């Protein structure tokens, strides 16, 4: 039995994949690794561990006892599920999340409140005020 040693870029240790023959194609290696690691909805990029040369063709032959590095990349055509924080406005938002209760403080009043923990306001407005107040030292005009 021949084998190829592989590791994902984020891992420290190598795993071995056994196969018949002297060589294995890059495409077959990818399929076996995806099956073994139970990966879905991604593509794999394979490169030699010693030279960092990438196997771009799925028909490329990888000799036995070779060490390779595997990189996961999102599959083409799929939307990324990552949500990125866009950032908040430097000023108070014009819309407040009040539900009609007049006893709650408005967002503009919350921005000037020192003790937000005991303020009578919705949690969403309190969080907006905290985010705004925490950035004041960075955006303050002198």
Task: List the topology elements.
Layout: E1 2-8, E2 15-19, E3 23-25, H1 26-37, E4 42-48, E5 54-55, E6 61-63, E7 67-74, H2 107-110, H3 123-134, H4 136-139
Parallel strand pairs: 1-7
Antiparallel strand pairs: 1-2, 3-6, 4-5, 4-7
What is the compact description of this entry?
This protein has 142 residues and is of the alpha+beta class. It has helices at 26-37, 107-110, 123-134, 136-139; strands at residues 2-8, 15-19, 23-25, 42-48, 54-55, 61-63, 67-74. 23% of the residues lie in helices and 25% in strands.
Q: Can you describe this structure?
A:
This protein has 142 residues and is α+β, with helices and mostly antiparallel strands. It is 23% helix and 25% strand. The strands form two sheets. It has a five-stranded mixed β-sheet with strand order 2-1-7-4-5, with helices on one face. It has a two-stranded antiparallel ribbon with strand order 3-6. Strand 1 and strand 2 form a beta hairpin.
Main beta sheet: 5 strands, mixed
Strand content: 15-25%
Rough shape? rod-shaped
Percent helix: 10-25%
Number of helices: 4
What is the N-to-C order of secondary-structure elements (H for helix, E for strand)?
EEEHEEEEHHH
Runs with pLDDT <50, length 5+? 88-99
Strand order of the largest sheet: 2-1-7-4-5
Q: Give the number of DSSP strands.
A: 7
Estimated radius of gyration: 27 Å
Distance between the termini: 73 Å
How confident overall, as mean pLDDT?
80
User: Which structural class should the secondary elements be placed in?
Assistant: alpha+beta
Protein name: E3 ubiquitin-protein ligase RBBP6-like
Organism: Danio rerio (Zebrafish)
